[in-house]
Amino acid sequence: MIAERGSWVIVGSILIALLLVAIPVPVSWREYTPDWPLLFLFYWVLALPNRVGVLSACVVGILTDLLDGSPAGATAIGAVMAVLVILVSYQRIRQFDGLKQGLVMALLISLVHLVEQRLETFLGWQHSSTAFLMPAAVSFLFWVPVRNCLRFFRRYYEVQ
Fold this sequence. Notes:
With 160 residues, the chain is mostly helical. The protein has seven helices and no strands.
């Protein structure tokens, strides 16, 4: 019963993160918004690596691509790569304080956006700046509040 009850918390939080992506913001602000789905996904992979993994990263990546209008699979490939890094070293990352964890998450989000940008360049989309890395820097600032909020819900609803 606890596992069933806990699953809706994971799925619900990811859906909330996807809704945060869908909120319309001015184009000039778009690059300054954190990458909510990746932050939420990385938290759940770090907290529950036996329940949230590569398949979840693929699904979240494809849904993010559909919301962003990017080529389907561009974010998914980067998200899968980042989740594999987390799965290999989650025990070590858990021991880091919030600042170091935020730095690791920012680097992983940078990896996701770099893979996405390279795939889009390969498909013929032009990118002339490094502004695609700005969401990683902003996500660094939001990592600790997101982690603490999701940790509270994980403990409150006894997600295991």
